[in-house]
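[INFO] parsing input record for Outer-membrane lipoprotein carrier protein
[DEBUG] input buffer:
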Amino acid sequence: MVLNLLFKKNILFFLYFYLLFFFLNLFFNPLLSNEQNQQGKALISNFFNNTKSLTARFNQSLVDSDNTLMETSEGSLKIKRPNLLLWEYKKPYDEKIIADGINLWIYDVDLKQVIVKPQAESFSNTPAELLTGEIDIISKYDFIGTLTYKEIVWVKLRPKNLESSFVQIEFGFQEGILAKILFADNLNQTTLIELMDLVINQDIGNEIFNFSLTDDIDLIGTPIISDNRVMQ
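[DEBUG] output buffer:
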């Protein structure tokens, strides 16, 4: 019974996801509605110009090039611009991704193992760079068009850099508030992120974006230490 319910749930989600992605790509046309496109540009401009921080819970789904639902996950996120990110997965595994402005830490809680990489190199031309970057980060993207579907205003952007890790990203706004993010990567995989309990411009202290490396955690990689930063 439980397996049947899960199977039906996955099938229904897949149909929603596939139809959404197909519909958006089929009907996104910058010439369809100038008024609608102006609305989309205003939403994007307001988000990137006025969002200093955001917190939310999220559900994330990944579909591969064969339109097979590969993975679903959920958790919470905190972003403080510029360049600070805390992305916590709670299901189906416990993992933390922390960007402290210099290093990117990927921490497997169960294994007590952390991988550290230079943040600038890891974030370059990725959706994470777009979400956490300076205000002018939006200049690296072309506006493609706007479409309203089921009360969600979708705004589609495409990276100008052809070597970007993804080919397009779509922001879905509901009543002016960011509600969904959909992006397709170079492997023809598509990721949908649904945001809940979104809070914009809450005061967030920088300390939560510091990874505390203790003796019981295995470290893979070498963190960069700046002159004005002390590793904990």
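[INFO] Residues 2-220 form a domain with the outer membrane lipoprotein receptor (LolB), chain A fold (CATH 2.50.20.10).
[INFO] shutting down worker
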